[in-house]
Amino acid sequence: MASSSSTHTTSSSVSGEPIALSAALASFSDLWSPRIVTAVNDYDVRIAKVDGEHVWHVHDHTDEFFLVLEGELTIALRETAGERTVVLPKGSVFTVPRGTEHKPSAPTGAAILLFEPTGTITVGDRHDEVPDHVDATTGHPLT
Question: What is the 3-state secondary structure (H, E, C) of the chain?
């Protein structure tokens, strides 16, 4: 792997070098399988390619931050007041509050950045049956 200050794709928390998100996204093709690009304190910064639907799930102890890097992400939410859906176009951010059941989807595909405590599993603390196309993981190292 080439290592220059503008395209280095290993974790900057280890290397001290900048990470080009476009190069990091180009380094893998798996869907719903986040890669950890760096860490901030006790939080992972993860990127993922997504297409289709995830799974209804809830994180009991942490919020979940989404930033849409490419495409459009839809997040269905089950809240006290009922169900609603938020649509996040490229460049949009949204935080799902802890304890809120939610289901991300991207009917036409998207690339997203997530900010979560290290060790947070992608399918939350409680979830529906996990389909084969969803990787139940705490994130994979960026290689």
Answer: CCCCCCCCCCCHHHHCCCCCHHHHHHCCCCECCCEEEEEECCEEEEEEEEEEECCCEECCCCCEEEEEEEEEEEEEEEECCEEEEEEEECCCEEEECCCCEEEEEEEEEEEEEEEEECCCCCCCCEECCCCCCCCCCCCEECC
Confidence of residue 16 (pLDDT cuts 50, 70, 90): confident
Q: Which amino acid is at 20?
A: A
- Name the token pair of 17: 């070098």
CA 9 to mean position of chain CA atoms: 17
> Residues with Cβ < 8 Å from 138, sequence gap 6 or more?
44, 118, 119, 120, 121, 122
**Prediction pTM value:** 0.87
What is the C-alpha to C-alpha distance for residues 116 and 63, in angstroms, rounded to an integer? Answer: 7
